[in-house]
Amino acid sequence: MKALILNSGLGCRMGVITKEHPKCMTEISHTDTILSRQLKQLVSFGIEEVVMTTGYYDDVLVDYCNVLHLPLKFTFVNNPLYDQTNYIYSIYCAKEHLRNDDIILMHGDLVFENLVMEAVVDSPNSCMVVSSSLPLPEKDFKAVVTNGRIEKIGIEFFENAVAAQPLYKIKKEDWLVWLGNIETFCENNNRKCYAENAFNEVSNQCNIYPCDVHDMLCAEIDTPEDLKIVSEKLVAVNERTVYMCFSTEYIHSGHTAIINKARRLGRLIIGILSDEAVASYKRFPLIPFEERKALFENIAGVERVVEQKMLSYAENLRWLKPDYVVHGNDWVEGFQKPIRQEVCDVLSEYGGKLVEYPYTNNPKYKELDANHRSEASMPDVRRGRLRKLINMKGLVTALEAHSGITGLIVENTKVLQDGKTYQFDAMWVSSLCDSTAKGKPDIELVDMTSRFRTIDDIMEVTTKPIIFDGDTGGLTEHFVYTVRSLERMGVSMVIIEDKTGLKKNSLFGTEVKQTQASIPDFCEKIRAGKNSQKTKEFMICARIESLILERGMADALERAFAFSEAGADAIMIHSRKKDPSEIFEFVEKFREKNTTTPIVVVPTSFNTVTEAEFKKRGVNVVIYANQLTRTGFPAMQDAARTILENHRAKECDDKCMSIKDIITLIPEE
Ligand code: SPV
Ligand code: MG
After folding, report:
1. Which one of 100, 292, 587, 626 is most buried, counting C-beta atoms within 10 A?
2. What is the pTM of this model?
């Protein structure tokens, strides 16, 4: 596509302003003339070639264009009769340069905002800029629109007409028809009328549609008064701000394309989602906030980069009041729909606008994302993420997973509430649930090889950190090997409980015989485990069973201090009481002396306590230890019974997830 700019005329009505140069060289802002602004706009829309008709002060004009050093290829065509003819003849002079492309045609005295240019450039058909919002001008162009198409253009038409501006996109097939008639006109010495007179005769073979820009800026400058009005409007246009938000850790061509579009609308402010918001909405960012911010600070045309603390834009929009928010149209449906709605609501509070561009669904970007995901799932990257999350969020949550599919549920389940996204931070590979899935009791019967197999199944399809239920840790001589294997696999933390001999599930409490390990023995196990690990990030958590075995608070606390002294990276305190007071008491007393070692709780029994309350009291990890197992298997029992009772599967159908839904639970690689 080429641009054709008509700059031959005298511009007499501008008075002294055009004494020494053509009208298009009139200054309209501190930084631009009418022409330099037009040319820069063309460059920003990807136009590379400009045909410019010249006449009045043509040498001054040509020099000026060259001095601008814009990446444009100019073809200057002089109209030798510029003072006796109209621009129809200038076009005629340039005709040989105008036969092979679609063209953007504009008068050289036209000032328009970028959204106008965008509407013209992106139009699938030939079009002319009109405004249905402005009153019909007395002396300027109007377009008569019939059956959705422009039938006539001229200053004399008032019926069925809209205000029109000489800015067009004309597809080659339409242009050849119009240009053909311009040639006929000029060859018949009809050179003083408008080029549009030639169009009016052939408009039925030439499909030009109105491109309605309503009250956006698009105006010709004919007089010093016009210049004053348009320059003032331009000040406001140039002060507009645009806001976009990114969470990405790398910039690809899709990002730069949308940034370039946003930049055309105003001064661009970029919001970078905080690490916490990214972790809650996607996954833990591999690249921290400061580095993600720096990526954008180095992009030309980005004026300012700020933090967006939450997925919700509301806070930043009320603060910055941007004129536009720019986003891909991928959030019209799906998970981000409520966020989008909130953006629309907040923008309407002060008259801002949402501008959406088609989302680039490039398979290359999907591949990049998949590579990124697999990087996030690599052992070295995954292992340290639990500790980082605890440091970043203060409190993290984990849900049990005992297979690939339950791992995917923990990985992908998200809830959007009050502008925030909630998802689990980590997975708990429970001995109870792993054993149950294998139809075995929770007595350390499922051997480590088999437990590792479960971890592997989960790891293969997920990226979130894993907390492994290591039961008693076994013999110290064995535990050191377990630690290394877990560490190598990318597990973030193992929790071992201070029991010895035949371990039974804690929720049996004192109903079964269970023996607690001595403090020195268990400290020795912790020390041996810590000494055997190869990385700094892997965590060993000591789990205290004193409250379960009714040995009292003092014993629990004595153990907690001894175990953390021995090197435990975290302390888990367990209870099977519904009433959380003993847990609260423990946390309070432990925190009086130790403010840093993370505390882990498993609120299966004391399940009324909210995460916020735990956090307030100083807990750092909340593990939902068995809820997928306890909801999943009863549903299966129910299905089995329903089929048996009805001797067919139909009655079971309503209880079933559709095949389509079950397939979509498994993401395609
Ligand atoms: C498990 O989930 O296997 C646990 C927690 O160890 S509990 O069942 O509460 O003991
Ligand atoms: Mg267990």
Report:
1. 292
2. 0.74
